[in-house]
Amino acid sequence: MRTSEAINIGSKILRNKNIVSHKIDAEIILSHILKTSREKLLINEQDISHTDLKRFKKIISRRLKKEPIAYILNKKEFRSKDFYVVKNSLIPRPETELLIDPIIKKFKEKRLYFLDVGTGTGCIMLSILNELNNSRGLGIDICNKAISVAKVNLKTMNLNRRASLKCRSIDTIYNKKFDLVVSNPPYVVKREINQLSEDIKKFEPQKALDGGHDGLDVIRKVIYKSKSILKLNGILALEIGSGQNNSVSTILRLNGFREIKKIKDYKDNVRCIFSTLI
Ligand code: GLN
Question: What CATH superfamily is the domain 76-277?
Protein backbone atom coordinates (compact mmCIF):
# COMPACT_ATOMS: atom_id res chain seq x y z
CA MET A 1 0.00 0.00 0.00
CA ARG A 2 1.15 3.57 -0.74
CA THR A 3 1.62 6.11 2.05
CA SER A 4 -1.14 8.48 0.88
CA GLU A 5 -3.62 5.62 0.74
CA ALA A 6 -2.76 4.55 4.29
CA ILE A 7 -3.14 8.13 5.53
CA ASN A 8 -6.57 8.36 3.92
CA ILE A 9 -7.71 5.09 5.44
CA GLY A 10 -6.38 5.96 8.91
CA SER A 11 -7.84 9.44 8.73
CA LYS A 12 -11.27 8.09 7.74
CA ILE A 13 -11.30 5.60 10.62
CA LEU A 14 -10.55 8.41 13.07
CA ARG A 15 -13.03 10.80 11.46
CA ASN A 16 -15.80 8.25 11.92
CA LYS A 17 -15.14 8.48 15.67
CA ASN A 18 -15.40 12.28 15.51
CA ILE A 19 -11.72 12.87 16.09
CA VAL A 20 -11.34 16.38 14.71
CA SER A 21 -7.62 16.13 14.14
CA HIS A 22 -8.08 12.89 12.13
CA LYS A 23 -5.97 13.90 9.12
CA ILE A 24 -2.98 15.30 10.96
CA ASP A 25 -3.13 12.45 13.51
CA ALA A 26 -2.95 9.83 10.75
CA GLU A 27 -0.02 11.68 9.17
CA ILE A 28 1.84 12.01 12.46
CA ILE A 29 1.30 8.35 13.32
CA LEU A 30 2.55 7.15 9.94
CA SER A 31 5.58 9.42 9.98
CA HIS A 32 6.38 8.09 13.47
CA ILE A 33 6.27 4.49 12.20
CA LEU A 34 8.33 5.24 9.10
CA LYS A 35 10.75 7.30 11.21
CA THR A 36 10.49 10.34 9.01
CA SER A 37 9.12 13.84 9.41
CA ARG A 38 5.53 14.63 8.51
CA GLU A 39 6.73 17.06 5.85
CA LYS A 40 8.94 14.43 4.16
CA LEU A 41 6.19 11.85 4.37
CA LEU A 42 3.81 14.12 2.52
CA ILE A 43 6.31 14.92 -0.24
CA ASN A 44 7.82 11.46 -0.75
CA GLU A 45 5.12 9.01 -1.62
CA GLN A 46 6.32 5.45 -0.99
CA ASP A 47 5.25 1.85 -0.43
CA ILE A 48 4.62 0.64 3.10
CA SER A 49 5.72 -2.83 4.17
CA HIS A 50 3.19 -5.25 5.57
CA THR A 51 4.70 -5.02 9.07
CA ASP A 52 4.62 -1.21 9.07
CA LEU A 53 1.02 -1.25 7.93
CA LYS A 54 0.11 -3.54 10.79
CA ARG A 55 1.87 -1.26 13.24
CA PHE A 56 0.09 1.72 11.73
CA LYS A 57 -3.32 0.12 12.20
CA LYS A 58 -2.48 -0.82 15.77
CA ILE A 59 -1.62 2.76 16.65
CA ILE A 60 -4.66 4.11 14.82
CA SER A 61 -6.78 1.89 17.05
CA ARG A 62 -5.11 3.37 20.15
CA ARG A 63 -5.94 6.84 18.91
CA LEU A 64 -9.47 5.64 18.19
CA LYS A 65 -9.83 5.07 21.94
CA LYS A 66 -8.86 8.76 22.35
CA GLU A 67 -5.35 8.17 23.65
CA PRO A 68 -3.49 11.48 23.11
CA ILE A 69 -0.87 11.49 20.35
CA ALA A 70 1.74 12.72 22.85
CA TYR A 71 1.36 9.51 24.93
CA ILE A 72 1.46 7.34 21.82
CA LEU A 73 4.68 8.94 20.56
CA ASN A 74 6.03 9.56 24.06
CA LYS A 75 6.90 13.10 23.16
CA LYS A 76 5.51 16.60 22.98
CA GLU A 77 7.06 19.78 21.67
CA PHE A 78 7.25 22.72 24.05
CA ARG A 79 9.05 25.92 23.05
CA SER A 80 10.57 24.12 20.06
CA LYS A 81 12.06 21.31 22.14
CA ASP A 82 10.83 17.75 22.35
CA PHE A 83 9.93 16.56 25.85
CA TYR A 84 9.65 12.92 26.81
CA VAL A 85 6.12 12.24 28.08
CA VAL A 86 4.42 9.20 29.56
CA LYS A 87 0.94 8.94 30.98
CA ASN A 88 2.04 9.83 34.51
CA SER A 89 2.68 13.44 33.59
CA LEU A 90 0.42 16.11 32.19
CA ILE A 91 1.12 16.76 28.51
CA PRO A 92 2.80 20.17 28.08
CA ARG A 93 0.31 22.68 26.69
CA PRO A 94 0.65 25.79 24.56
CA GLU A 95 -0.95 28.01 27.22
CA THR A 96 1.87 27.10 29.59
CA GLU A 97 4.35 28.47 27.04
CA LEU A 98 2.85 31.90 27.80
CA LEU A 99 4.47 31.80 31.24
CA ILE A 100 8.00 31.55 29.96
CA ASP A 101 8.66 34.68 27.84
CA PRO A 102 8.16 37.27 30.60
CA ILE A 103 10.40 35.22 32.90
CA ILE A 104 13.15 35.08 30.28
CA LYS A 105 12.89 38.84 29.71
CA LYS A 106 12.84 39.72 33.40
CA PHE A 107 15.78 37.55 34.45
CA LYS A 108 18.00 37.85 31.36
CA GLU A 109 21.66 38.29 32.39
CA LYS A 110 20.65 37.94 36.06
CA ARG A 111 21.37 35.11 38.45
CA LEU A 112 18.12 33.32 39.04
CA TYR A 113 17.24 30.66 41.59
CA PHE A 114 13.71 29.41 41.12
CA LEU A 115 11.21 26.83 42.29
CA ASP A 116 8.85 25.05 39.88
CA VAL A 117 5.86 23.63 41.76
CA GLY A 118 4.21 20.60 40.14
CA THR A 119 6.91 20.27 37.54
CA GLY A 120 5.38 17.30 35.63
CA THR A 121 7.55 16.67 32.55
CA GLY A 122 9.77 19.54 33.70
CA CYS A 123 8.79 21.62 30.66
CA ILE A 124 8.63 24.96 32.53
CA MET A 125 11.76 24.42 34.57
CA LEU A 126 13.86 23.05 31.72
CA SER A 127 12.77 25.77 29.29
CA ILE A 128 13.93 28.42 31.78
CA LEU A 129 17.23 26.62 32.39
CA ASN A 130 17.72 26.20 28.63
CA GLU A 131 17.17 29.84 27.90
CA LEU A 132 18.83 31.44 30.93
CA ASN A 133 22.39 30.26 31.42
CA ASN A 134 22.75 31.88 34.83
CA SER A 135 19.74 30.19 36.31
CA ARG A 136 19.40 27.33 38.75
CA GLY A 137 16.17 25.58 39.58
CA LEU A 138 14.45 23.21 41.95
CA GLY A 139 11.53 21.26 40.53
CA ILE A 140 9.07 19.47 42.81
CA ASP A 141 6.10 17.23 42.18
CA ILE A 142 4.03 15.05 44.51
CA CYS A 143 4.05 12.29 41.90
CA ASN A 144 7.17 10.16 41.97
CA LYS A 145 6.60 8.89 38.45
CA ALA A 146 6.36 12.45 37.12
CA ILE A 147 9.70 13.20 38.75
CA SER A 148 11.26 10.21 36.97
CA VAL A 149 9.97 11.54 33.66
CA ALA A 150 11.31 15.04 34.40
CA LYS A 151 14.68 13.46 35.27
CA VAL A 152 14.84 11.83 31.84
CA ASN A 153 14.26 15.24 30.23
CA LEU A 154 16.79 16.88 32.52
CA LYS A 155 19.42 14.36 31.48
CA THR A 156 18.59 14.51 27.77
CA MET A 157 18.89 18.28 27.84
CA ASN A 158 22.09 18.06 29.78
CA LEU A 159 21.02 20.47 32.49
CA ASN A 160 21.80 18.33 35.56
CA ARG A 161 24.40 20.74 36.89
CA ARG A 162 21.89 23.55 37.37
CA ALA A 163 18.84 21.71 38.57
CA SER A 164 17.45 19.30 41.07
CA LEU A 165 14.19 17.41 41.06
CA LYS A 166 12.48 16.14 44.18
CA CYS A 167 9.32 14.23 44.90
CA ARG A 168 7.69 16.42 47.51
CA SER A 169 4.93 18.89 48.24
CA ILE A 170 5.48 22.63 48.53
CA ASP A 171 4.62 22.28 52.26
CA THR A 172 8.02 20.70 52.84
CA ILE A 173 10.06 23.56 51.39
CA TYR A 174 11.75 25.52 54.20
CA ASN A 175 14.94 27.48 54.68
CA LYS A 176 15.17 28.44 51.05
CA LYS A 177 14.55 31.75 49.33
CA PHE A 178 13.79 31.98 45.64
CA ASP A 179 13.87 34.80 43.11
CA LEU A 180 10.94 33.17 41.38
CA VAL A 181 8.25 30.64 42.20
CA VAL A 182 6.56 29.37 39.07
CA SER A 183 3.72 26.91 38.82
CA ASN A 184 1.16 25.36 36.53
CA PRO A 185 -0.79 23.76 39.37
CA PRO A 186 -3.87 21.54 39.03
CA TYR A 187 -6.74 24.01 38.73
CA VAL A 188 -9.70 22.19 37.22
CA VAL A 189 -12.84 22.25 39.37
CA LYS A 190 -13.28 18.69 40.68
CA ARG A 191 -16.82 18.17 39.44
CA GLU A 192 -15.91 19.58 36.01
CA ILE A 193 -13.24 16.97 35.32
CA ASN A 194 -16.01 14.80 33.93
CA GLN A 195 -16.79 17.40 31.30
CA LEU A 196 -13.25 17.50 29.90
CA SER A 197 -12.59 15.79 26.58
CA GLU A 198 -12.08 12.04 26.69
CA ASP A 199 -8.45 12.46 25.65
CA ILE A 200 -7.83 14.32 28.88
CA LYS A 201 -10.10 12.64 31.40
CA LYS A 202 -9.38 9.08 30.34
CA PHE A 203 -5.62 9.41 29.97
CA GLU A 204 -4.08 12.35 31.80
CA PRO A 205 -3.23 12.11 35.50
CA GLN A 206 -6.14 13.32 37.65
CA LYS A 207 -3.71 14.54 40.26
CA ALA A 208 -2.32 17.03 37.77
CA LEU A 209 -5.78 18.40 36.96
CA ASP A 210 -7.87 18.29 40.13
CA GLY A 211 -7.87 21.64 41.92
CA GLY A 212 -10.54 20.67 44.45
CA HIS A 213 -14.09 21.97 44.91
CA ASP A 214 -13.48 25.41 43.37
CA GLY A 215 -10.32 24.54 41.41
CA LEU A 216 -8.24 26.85 43.60
CA ASP A 217 -6.97 24.52 46.35
CA VAL A 218 -3.42 24.23 45.08
CA ILE A 219 -3.27 27.81 43.78
CA ARG A 220 -4.17 29.02 47.30
CA LYS A 221 -1.51 26.81 48.81
CA VAL A 222 1.20 27.99 46.41
CA ILE A 223 0.31 31.65 47.00
CA TYR A 224 0.28 31.25 50.78
CA LYS A 225 3.57 29.38 50.88
CA SER A 226 5.28 31.72 48.42
CA LYS A 227 5.04 34.54 50.97
CA SER A 228 7.69 32.85 53.07
CA ILE A 229 9.93 31.33 50.39
CA LEU A 230 10.22 34.26 47.98
CA LYS A 231 12.96 36.84 48.32
CA LEU A 232 11.61 40.31 49.07
CA ASN A 233 11.53 41.37 45.42
CA GLY A 234 10.82 37.85 44.19
CA ILE A 235 8.20 37.00 41.60
CA LEU A 236 5.33 34.56 41.71
CA ALA A 237 4.29 33.35 38.23
CA LEU A 238 1.09 31.32 38.09
CA GLU A 239 -0.85 29.65 35.34
CA ILE A 240 -4.59 29.73 36.09
CA GLY A 241 -7.74 28.35 34.48
CA SER A 242 -10.05 30.44 32.30
CA GLY A 243 -12.46 32.34 34.50
CA GLN A 244 -10.25 32.18 37.62
CA ASN A 245 -8.72 35.62 37.13
CA ASN A 246 -10.86 37.53 39.63
CA SER A 247 -10.75 34.89 42.36
CA VAL A 248 -6.98 34.47 42.06
CA SER A 249 -6.50 38.26 42.09
CA THR A 250 -8.42 38.40 45.35
CA ILE A 251 -6.37 35.62 46.95
CA LEU A 252 -3.17 37.34 45.85
CA ARG A 253 -4.27 40.67 47.28
CA LEU A 254 -5.35 39.13 50.59
CA ASN A 255 -1.90 37.58 50.88
CA GLY A 256 -0.10 40.86 50.24
CA PHE A 257 0.85 40.32 46.60
CA ARG A 258 0.75 43.06 43.97
CA GLU A 259 -0.01 42.01 40.42
CA ILE A 260 2.53 43.15 37.88
CA LYS A 261 1.50 41.40 34.69
CA LYS A 262 -1.33 39.33 33.27
CA ILE A 263 -1.20 37.34 30.06
CA LYS A 264 -4.20 36.30 28.01
CA ASP A 265 -4.57 33.30 25.75
CA TYR A 266 -5.82 33.54 22.16
CA LYS A 267 -9.40 33.36 23.45
CA ASP A 268 -8.78 36.53 25.47
CA ASN A 269 -8.83 34.76 28.86
CA VAL A 270 -6.25 35.72 31.48
CA ARG A 271 -4.15 32.56 31.89
CA CYS A 272 -0.99 33.78 33.66
CA ILE A 273 -0.57 36.17 36.56
CA PHE A 274 2.78 37.59 37.68
CA SER A 275 2.91 39.18 41.10
CA THR A 276 5.32 40.37 43.77
CA LEU A 277 5.30 41.17 47.47
CA ILE A 278 6.64 44.74 47.19
N1 GLN B 1 -4.95 23.21 30.94
C2 GLN B 1 -5.37 21.93 31.41
C3 GLN B 1 -6.72 21.58 30.88
O4 GLN B 1 -7.59 22.41 30.79
C5 GLN B 1 -5.40 21.87 32.91
C6 GLN B 1 -4.04 21.83 33.46
C7 GLN B 1 -4.02 22.12 34.92
O8 GLN B 1 -4.94 21.83 35.68
N9 GLN B 1 -2.97 22.68 35.31
O10 GLN B 1 -6.93 20.45 30.54
Answer: Vaccinia Virus protein VP39 (3.40.50.150)
Alpha carbons 33 and 37: distance in angstroms, whole number: 10
What distance in angstroms lies between residue 196's CA and the mean position of ligand 1's atoms?
Answer: 10
- Counting atoms of ligand 1 from 1, which one is nearest the CA of 196? 10
**pLDDT (0 to 100) of residue 278:** 86
Determine whether the shortest distance from the Cβ of 93 to ligand 1 is under 6 A: yes
Using CA positions, which residue lies closest to atom 2 of ligand 1? 209
* Ligand 1 atom 10: residue of nearest CA: 200
Decide: 200 in ligand 1 pocket, CB within 6 A.
Answer: yes
Ligand 1 within 6 A of 78 CB? no
CATH number of 3-65: 1.10.8.10
**pLDDT, tens digit, for every residue of 143-153?**
999 999 999 99
Burial bucket for residue 183 (CB in 10 Å: 0-12, 13-18, 19+): buried
* pTM score of the predicted model: 0.94
pLDDT per position as a tens digit, 196-235: 999 999 999 999 999 999 999 999 999 999 999 999 999 9
